[in-house]
Amino acid sequence: MGQCRTFQFGIHPICKQAIALDRVLRLQRELYNAALEARRGAWRWERRSVSYFQECRSLTELRGARPEVLEFGGTVCRGTLTRLDRAFDSFFERCQRGEKPGYPRFKSRSRFNSLQWDDTKGWKLKADVRRLHLHGIGDVRVHLHREVTGTPKAITVKREGRRWFVSIRCVGVEPTPLAPTGREVGIDLGIVNLVATSDGELIDEGRFGRNAAAALARAQRDLKRKQRGSNRRRRAVERVAQHHRRVRNQRRDLAHKVSRQLVNDFDLIVLEDLKVANMLRRPKPRLGPNGTFEPNGAKAKSGLNRSIQDAGWGQLTWMLAYKAEDAGRELHIVAPQFTSQRCSRCEHTDEASRRSQAVFRCTACGFEAHADINAACNVLWAGRAQRALARAG
Ligand SMILES: [Zn+2]
């Protein structure tokens, strides 16, 4: 049995290999765009849709026309076609939900940065010599900072700026249960504090995180002043991307640390349902005259920071989920109704009890606490109730 797990490592191609990797990216991007073009054309001219399987079959025709595309194996080509297929799937899904998504787009060089091998052909992880063998590229050095357990089934290789990473998907990863601690915790995910626990702990991203976020905001402002198409703008875009990566990496490290700590310390961990929480917290979207999102500088920035924030919460929830499963801890997700307005001591619910971003003072019993910690206590109560219900039923 066992579970699925994804391990991510940096890889360090030598110059020749990096050139080859760039070449695969270029060829796969061509393939992606060509397949997208074919789907568009088939629909426009013949009202016919092209399936992933048809595309895979026509891959063999490439052997005559463009043999270099297949130089790196068929698996990576199928991986690219899978990506396109997923893009269409989510496009149709969103259409069905009544949204107005953009049609899948042609990928420019800067928007096509990853390659995937969805089966075990065309690559091999040689853990003992810390190398990843990629067909047509060679043995690339991997920074294996931890052991890969289970059976590797698929990989994704991606480029971020000048750096390269590999994600290795494994199945059959054996769990490593931890001894019970007899402690339980509720967690409130916030904007000022990433995490507040019912034990009274507040965790924010720290000075380094704030500095990185501020640097990102500066780089974004700087970018706006640059003229379109200029060299300075190109460099400014690169700087923004770099700051983005830095912020993202720092948040990922923090999420790893926090989730590890929580899973080590508690038998029961209760979280809010992120989707519902997001809907409650998200400011109402401002719609333009024809139903589109109104572009607005300030709004766009807050939207961007918000998307990073959402990603941070999602990441933390995901890490908690897999670490809890691995350690045999119980994780409950509850609907976050009234968690910020209810008093965790007397259950009195009143909007006015929340005095400010940080202060909660119950209008009925006078209980005073940090607002996020009070919310975290409510989350814990909701989780216990849910667990009791699940056990009774
Ligand atoms: Zn009260």
What are the salient characteristics of this protein?
393 residues, alpha+beta, seven-stranded antiparallel beta sheet, five-stranded mixed beta sheet, 47% helix, globular, binds zinc ion
Word description of this protein:
The chain contains 8 helices and 14 strands. The protein is α+β, with helices and mostly antiparallel strands and 393 residues long. The protein folds into 2 domains: 3-173, no CATH class; 184-392, no CATH class. It has a 7-stranded antiparallel β-sheet. Strands 10-9-8-11-12 form a 5-stranded mixed β-sheet. The chain has a two-stranded antiparallel sheet with strand order 13-14. Helix 2 packs antiparallel against helix 3 and helix 5 packs parallel to helix 7. The two termini are 27 Å apart. Mean pLDDT is 87; it is low at 282-286 and 294-301. The structure holds zinc ion (ZN). Zinc ion (ZN) binds at residues 343, 345-346, 348, 362, 364-365, 367.
Report the count of strand segments: 14
Biggest sheet architecture: 7 strands, antiparallel
What is the rounded Rg? 24 Å
Which strands sit side by side, in order, in the main sheet? 2-6-7-1-5-4-3
Task: Tell me the span between the first and last alpha carbons.
Answer: 27 Å
Mean pLDDT: 87
* Rough outline: globular
Strand share of the residues?
A: 15-25%
Give the proportion of residues in helices. Answer: 40-55%
- Total of domains: 2
Helix and strand content put the structural class at: alpha+beta
Q: DSSP helix count?
A: 8
- The SSE string, one letter per element, is EHHHEEEEEEEEEHHEHHEEEH
Low-pLDDT residue spans: 282-286, 294-301
Which cofactors or ions or other ligands sit in this model? Answer: zinc ion
